[in-house]
Hints:
Shape: globular
Mean pLDDT: 93
Helix content: 25-40%
Strand content: 35-45%
Largest sheet: 8 strands, mixed
Oligomer: single chain
Order of helices and strands: EHHEEEHEEEEHEHEEEH
CATH topology: Rossmann fold
Distance between the termini: 36 Å
Number of strands: 12
Radius of gyration: 18 Å
Number of domains: 1
Amino acid sequence: MTVHQLSENNSILNTFIAEIRDKKIQKDAMRFRRNIERIGEIMGYEMSKQLPYITKAVTTPLGTKLIDLIDDKIVLCSILRAGLPLHQGLLNYFDKAENAFISAYRKIKPNGDFDIRVEYFASPSLQDKTLFLADPMLATGQSLVSTYKALLSHGTPKELHIFAVIGSSDGIDYISKYLPKQTHLWIATVDDTLNNHGYIIPGLGDAGDLAFGDKL
């Protein structure tokens, strides 16, 4: 797996990462969602440099210009519900992409362990297409692996790109073992630690709750 950690080079991205982490600023749910969306836009721009291009003629009012344009069939899938703002940021740039949505959540056991449950799933065919899989928090990595396995019921993509805002080192190691070797991970920043409940430290808290409110 190839890891592209965007925060390794300083940019305006740092501002958006700082704001989604800041416990005072993140109380503004609309700003939190917008910051995740902006991070998705930056990731989409950087990732677009890796796609295949084809030269096409574009007719202007005064003539014709040859321009290199993306030549790929893309399906953008987000993990509900936390992935929705990140999905929107990517969709702002890849507006011709097909879309898929899937739910994945932790089912806590009495001993404190958890299973990953995948339930709602809506997707076009993925066969021989480029799959973008968006989930803002890459903690243990189990949700991403379970989601990818479920998606294969709709075909095998030719290429897999994972988009995450904050990840853990353990989570990255985990998905690298279970996802295709040619997978690309596009991630804003990486934290080293997971707590006993599988949450990223220092992380930012629960991205889904911060974006859309507490759940029962």
